[in-house]
Design brief:
This protein is of the alpha/beta class. The chain is built from eight helices and seven strands; from the N terminus they run βαββαβαβααβαααβ. It has helices spanning 13-24, 52-66, 89-117, 129-132, 138-158, 176-179, 183-191, 201-211; strands at 4-8, 28-33, 43-46, 71-74, 120-125, 163-170, 223-226. Helix 1 packs across helix 8 (201-211) and helix 3 (89-117) packs parallel to helix 5 (138-158). NADP nicotinamide-adenine-dinucleotide phosphate binds at residues 8-9, 11-15, 32-36, 48-50, 75-78, 98, 102, 125, 127, 170, 172-173, 175-178.
């Protein structure tokens, strides 16, 4: 039997690649989704991470079906891009509620079970934008930087109980989230990436799987960039 893994927002994009990587390694993988269910082979649990009741119910279902969560990947996230002066309270709140508060909710709930197990791995999916900033993404960048402070605080609180908390910071990865960006913006990003191409979802997934493996047992509070070099030095 593999470990009980949960990937939030694992029905598509980077989350689905992460879920697939764990499945291939022999783990039992649950995937929460908001609107689009995952493909076959995963325990799909409908759960809006902005709703605490749905989060609690999802963790109960997962514990029943595949055991308490031992590896949590807080991946679900959204963007609502616009310039600062045009950014509404709703643009701000929805992004912070999903990306930051949602990740807090699932981490808090997962930590409960991990403390009982006296082991666990938490990986937050941040973004290079949380380190470099990005025009039009004040809400998104703030939410993604916030994950770093959260992970490092959890790493300090729970390290002595065998629980690690780390961050993966992807650069520009080809998914639905980036497909909507104007061609001009995509070209601009591309010109700044030392490796000269956008990332693939599987490349993010491999870093997450490794961080959650035995081999990375002495790594906690770290921010691992998987960004083709765009955020170098940050
Ligand atoms: N793509 C990139 O270039 C890039 C770069 C850096 C960081 N990231 C981060 O990587 C993560 C995944 O990005 P992606 O590109 O794969 O995005 P995506 O294709 O847009 O997928 C987002 C996922 O999050 C889920 N989700 C959104 N709101 C949710 C909510 N309230 N409750 C539960 N699930 C929710 C979606 O579920 P439904 O399908 O059910 O709506 C979907 O599975 C995000 O945190 C993103 O910020 C992406």
């Amino acid at each position: 039997m593999g470990r009980s893994v949960l990937v939030t927002g694992g029905s598509r994009g980077i989350g689905l690649a992460i879920a697939t990587a764990f499945k291939e390694a022999g783990d039992e993988v649950a995937v929460t989704y908001n609107t689009s269910p995952p493909p076959e082979g995963f325990l799909g649990v409908k759960c809006d991470i902005t709703d605490q009741e749905q989060v609690d119910a999802a963790f109960d279902t997962i514990a029943e079906q595949q055991g308490p969560v031992e590896v949590l990947v807080a991946n679900a996230g959204i963007t609502r891009d616009t310039l600062l002066l045009r950014m509404s309270d709703d643009d701000w709140d929805s992004v912070i509620q999903t990306n930051l508060t949602g990740s807090f909710r699932v981490a808090r709930r997962a930590a409960k079970g991990m403390l009982r197990l006296r082991k666990g791995r938490i990986v937050f999916i941040s973004s290079v934008v949380g380190l470099l900033g990005s025009p039009g993404q004040v809400n998104y960048a703030a939410s993604k930087s916030g994950l770093i402070g959260m992970a490092r605080s959890i790493a300090r609180e729970l390290g002595s109980r065998g629980i690690t908390a780390n961050v993966v910071a992807p650069g520009f990865v080809e998914t639905d989230m980036t497909a909507v960006l104007p061609e001009e913006t995509q070209k601009q990003y591309l010109s700044q990436i030392p490796l000269g191409r956008f990332g693939r979802t599987e490349e993010i997934a491999k870093a997450v799987r490794w961080l959650s493996s035995e081999e990375a047992g002495y790594i906690t509070g770290a921010v691992i960039p998987v960004d083709g070099g765009i955020g170098m030095g940050n």
